């Protein structure tokens, strides 16, 4: 006899567990199916983000940044310390402790809200039913009024660099190095490659990043991308663009990487190699042939603007559907779907989703880039402000980077904001809120910002849109 629920969620990552909790809060009987289990066989909640992604990587980024500060920056503040040492084991133990605290926290929230957690792999059947294959192989079926697929994504593998879990690793393996590699290779100069390269580079590794594309961070505004590239070069990251990896070979506990730049072939030898060329949706073995749910040619589940699939009462959210693979995007899609199941006509504003690269300094953006607006033939205006002119940033010895604000030249409405600099992730959120309410650049310019704060750079960039910045010389307008 199958169990029956109002809502069954497949996957307990940020998209899935948020959807499950929201559904339970709205009074729906809810189950969440998760295939990850720990050594004891208990369900491991949180998905990639909490277990081997966003959270552990930020823990190591923060630890490595503090080590870097102790090495070179504290002396500039008049603080003298003896030569710091890296205890990788303690660093990893701290990271694991944070992960365990958060994943157990989700388990507590499930219990508090009455979400039933089920261990196993879920498969969507016809008639919005879910087949669950438990870790021991036992198969059961859940009857659901509504199904939410939140199966997430996994690292893309490439034939020239097959991972072995030891010398050639994906993003998960890069969080588990038991010592700092002397020479570290990273394939891919995207978000994951830059963050992981930064972690081990700060801890003492010589890092070489091989990027097949000729443009650095093509998804970012190119003024910010160019400024970021300069900063990373100064930090010691060796980023090689137009470098297409053609093969790898393990020799005497080292990895020899062959790559091409133009017509030339090169080789580099590394102690470890991280493959960080992106992620792909986990959609294989997720759908029965008669489920009614459709995949596109890249393996993403086809959904409409409200995340409904072509099968009645079946939805999909997060990394398994179109759009940026961002935890917060998935979480909000999960909330939207549950609210719609409850009969509320809510929708997502996909124009106001912030994106962040958690290097130091951080890189953050929301809205359109100048390149996108130029390609659209839009009439726009731009204001920029460097952190070097921000008193709080200088006082903190953290003054690299800039804020770039873009507004419509006709209506003054803010179209985008792009930042590389201190606390960029938090600063851009101010502009996200402004854009959500349809604010103009003048609205931000007329807003009172506390002094001294790094957020004043956002204020000044908004002023600069019309040539009214106070703390830099404005360009003369024709």
Describe the structure.
Its cofactor is FAD. Its main location: cytoplasm. By secondary structure, the protein is α/β, with parallel strands linked by helices. It folds into three domains: 3-155 and 280-348, FAD/NAD(P)-binding domain, CATH 3.50.50.60; 168-277, FAD/NAD(P)-binding domain (3-Layer(bba) Sandwich); 353-464, Enolase-like, domain 1 (2-Layer Sandwich). It is built from twelve helices and 22 strands. The chain has helices spanning 14-25, 47-52, 54-73, 88-113, 191-202, 222-235, 327-341, 370-376, 391-395, 424-436, 441-445, 456-464, and strands spanning 3-10, 30-34, 116-119, 121-125, 129-133, 139-149, 153-155, 168-169, 183-187, 206-211, 238-241, 244-251, 254-261, 264-270, 272-275, 279-281, 314-316, 355-357, 362-367, 380-386, 402-408, 414-421. Strands 1, 2, 3, 4, 5, 6 and 17 form a seven-stranded mixed β-sheet that branches. α5 links the parallel β9 (183-187) and β10 (206-211). The longest helix has 26 residues, at 88-113.
Short description:
The protein has 478 residues and is α/β, with parallel strands linked by helices.
List the helices and strands and how they pair.
Elements: E1 3-10, H1 14-25, E2 30-34, H2 47-52, H3 54-73, H4 88-113, E3 116-119, E4 121-125, E5 129-133, E6 139-149, E7 153-155, E8 168-169, E9 183-187, H5 191-202, E10 206-211, H6 222-235, E11 238-241, E12 244-251, E13 254-261, E14 264-270, E15 272-275, E16 279-281, E17 314-316, H7 327-341, E18 355-357, E19 362-367, H8 370-376, E20 380-386, H9 391-395, E21 402-408, E22 414-421, H10 424-436, H11 441-445, H12 456-464
Parallel strand pairs: 1-2, 1-6, 2-3, 6-17, 8-15, 9-10, 9-15, 10-11
Antiparallel strand pairs: 4-5, 5-6, 7-16, 12-13, 13-14, 18-19, 19-22, 20-21, 21-22
Helix pairs in contact: 1-4, 1-7, 3-4, 3-5
